[in-house]
Amino acid sequence: MTQLQIDAGYFVHESSCVDDGAEIGQGTKIWHFSHVMAGSRIGARCSLGQNVFVASNVLIGNDVKIQNNVSIYEGVELEDEVFCGPSVVFTNVRTPRSGRPRKNYALTKVRRGATLGANCTIVCGTTIGEFALIGAGSVVTKDVSPHSIVYGNPAQVRGYACQCGLPLAFSDLRATCTECGRRYAMDNDEIARLPE
Predict the structure, then answer these.
(1) Cα–chain-centroid distance for residue 118?
(2) Is the four-CA dihedral 60, 62, 67, 68 of positive or negative sign?
(3) Distance (Å, whole) CA 147 – CA 191
(4) Which residues fall within 8 angstroms of residue 192, CB to CB, at 6 or more apart?
(5) How many Å apart are CA 144 and CA 128, to the nearest integer?
(6) Across the strands, what pairs with 191?
(7) How far apart are the C-alpha atoms of 105 and 117, rounded to whole Å?
(8) CA distance 96 to 136
(9) What are the sequence ranges of the domains in the chain?
(10) Which class in CATH covers the domain with range 3-167?
């Protein structure tokens, strides 16, 4: 690490490039062959794997894990504790044309604690709800509600997940996680956590 990186409190591998004007939080690690552009903001304790690209004006929260070969384009926001598996694909323009560049990026939000499986594609303009699980290889074309487990092309709701990540088994519109004990209720296909 350079003295600047030690003083700043984050790590950047020598093969990676962080442009002046990018904000990097304490304890964040940026590994091999990655590029973080000016104007982006990355929170504390994040991990960016090999060959990760972060465009200008991208917002990344705290404790986010981004695996190898993920490009996060302008218009994408990742809240705290989001997990992006290897080769997750984000888009940011609904009607791209090479000969007619468009800068009206559609906002894509991935809410706190959501998990995006390897090789899934998130079509721009969608919101992934808190603690949702997106299956590997899925194509997300519409908003995903909190705690939903979705997979397929296009991705469809196949179940619901606890905040800790395990699938929930509902009976009479109630579920209790077998691992952590959190309790949930379902109302009109929406999941709400019940008080302890």
Answers:
(1) 12
(2) positive
(3) 7
(4) 184, 185, 186
(5) 5
(6) 186
(7) 23
(8) 25
(9) 3-167
(10) mainly beta
Q: 54-61 — which CB contacts under 8 Å span 24+ positions?
A: 54/22, 61/112
Give one DSSP letter per residue of the chain, joined into a string: --HHHHHHT-EE-TT-EE-TT-EE-TT-EE-TT-EE-TT-EE-TT-EE-TT-EE-TT-EE-SS-EE-SS-EE-TTEEE-TT-EE-TT-EE---SS--TTS----PPPEEE-TT-EE-TT-EE-TT-EEPTT-EE-TT-EE-S-B-TTEEEETTTTEEEEEB-TTSPBP--BTTEEE-TTT--EEEEETTEEEEPP-
Give the pLDDT of residue 3.
43
Which tokens hold the place of 119? 């090789």
Say what the pTM is: 0.94
- pLDDT at 101 exceeding the cut of 90: no
Name residue 95's amino acid. T
Q: pLDDT tens, 139-186?
A: 999 999 999 999 999 999 999 999 999 999 999 999 999 999 999 999
Q: What's the rounded Cα separation, in Å, for the pair 68 and 166?
A: 24
139 vs 122: CA distance, rounded Å = 6
* pLDDT at residue 188, as a whole number: 87
Amino acid at 107: L
**Token match 């008080």: residue?**
195
